[in-house]
Amino acid sequence: MRSITAGAVLFSVLCAATGGLSAPLSDPTAPAANPKPAVKPKAAPANKPATAAPAAVAAAAAPCHTTGAYDAWLAAFEREALAQKISQRAIAATAPHLVFDQKFINIDRGQRVFTQTFLEFSGRMAATYRIQRGQALIKANAATFARIEQDFGVPAPVIVAFWGLESDFGANMGKYASLSAIATLAYDCRRSDRFRGQLFDAIRLIERDDLRPEDMIGSWAGELGQTQMMPSEYNQYGVDYDGDGKRDLIHSTPDVLGSTASYLKGLGWKKGEPWLTEVHVPANLPWDQADLSIQLPRSKWAGWGVMLADGKPLPADDLPASLLLPMGRLGPAFIAYPNFQVYLQWNNSLVYSTTAGYLATRIAGAPALHHGSPPPPLAFEEMKALQGMLARAGHDVGKIDGFAGLKTRQAVKAMQVKYGLPADSYPTADLLARMRGG
After folding, report:
1. Rounded to two decimals, what is the model's pTM?
2. pLDDT digits (tens, 9 = 90+) for 191-211
3. Are the beta carbons of 391 and 415 closer than 8 angstroms?
4. What tens digit of pLDDT does each residue of 401-415 get?
5. Bridge partners of 279?
6. Of 107, 220, 310, 383, which is most buried with the most CB atoms under 10 A?
7. Do the beta carbons of residue 425 and residue 409 sit within 8 Å?
8. Residue 270, CB half-sphere, CA atoms under 13 Å: how many?
C-alpha cells in the first residue's frame, strides 16, 4: 500500500491548499545519538526564540527513541547488505549518498493530515489543463499504450491520471536526495523496519544499473520516478519498456508507462472492466448499502432507481458494483467496480483514490461531475470531537486526527443507523449535535 506519503506534486499542492506542512525545524542539529548532520545548523534569528532541540521534539512526537550512533548503524546495515548478496560495488557506489539528514525526520514527524473534501481536492487536481495534457500524451504515445493494453490490460486514461497526479507528467518528481532520505528514516525509530527494506531495494536498483545514485532525486520519503514508486515497488514491477537494458522511471517515458501498468496489474487490475462511473441517485435509497465493502449486481442498483448521470438507465446486469458517496447522499455519486479497489491499494485515501478514478474518466471523455448540494463539511476540530465521541461509543475510528478516513466513515454509518439518520457514512453537523446531546 502506497501510503507512506503523497507524491511530490500532490504533496506540494496539498501544502499550498492547507497553509503548508508543519514547518521543518530551522535548526537541524543532531539528535541524542549524534549522527553527523547533512548541513550546518542555522542560528535562530535574533528576534525569535530558538526552537526546541530536534531530539526533544522528535521524542515528544512519537513513542519511540532512536539510540546508537548513525555511523555504527550504517556500518551494520552495510554488513547486512553484503549478507543479502548485494555486491560490494553497489554498496560502495551508494555509501557516499547515505548521509543522515535531520530534516527528513522533522518532515516525517511533522506531517499534517490534509482534510480537503473530495470536491475541493478533485477541483484542484482534476483541472482542465491536466485533462487536456493527459489526452494529448495518450495520442503522442499511442503505440506504447497499445502495447500496454495488450501486455497488461490497463487502459491509457488510468495510467495517465496517476502520471498527472503523482508528478504532473514528470514535471515535478521531487527535490530530495532519496538515498539520504531513506537511510535517515531507516535509522529513525518511528518506521525503521519499513524504510530499512526500502533501503536494501534502493541499493539493488543501483546494483542492477537501473539508476545511478546521483539520479535518485524524489520525494522526502524516497519515492522515485514519474509515478512515484517506492524502491520495493520499482524493483518488483519495473519493466524495461524501451529496450535499453535499464528500468528508468525517471527519464524514460516508455519505462514509466509500462512499469505503472505492471504495478496496477500486480495490484489486481482486471482487464476490460470499468473502474468508476458517475451516477444519479434517487431521493430514497437503502443508504446503508452505499459502502465500498458491499458489492451488489448493477441490476440491484438499477432496481433501486440508480441511473447514469445523464439520466440513461444503468445496465441491469450482474456486474458487481458498490455505491460510492464521497460527500454523502446529497453530493456526487459513483458506481465503483472491483477495479476501484486497486486505487485504494495505490493510496488508501478515499479522497485521493476517488479523485484519481474520476480524473481517469474525464481523460477518457466523461463530462464534468455534478456537484450536488452536500452539507458543509465539519471543521477540523469538530471532526476530531466527533471521532472522540465515536471512539468512546466503542467504534474503531483509527487515529483521532480530524480526518474522515474509511474507519471513521464506518463508525459514522453505525451511529447514523442508531439515530435513524440516512446512513450514508458522511459526518455532518446533525450527527455531531445528536451525539453531543446524548
Report:
1. 0.87
2. 999 999 999 999 999 999 999
3. no
4. 898 888 999 999 999
5. 308
6. 220
7. yes
8. 10
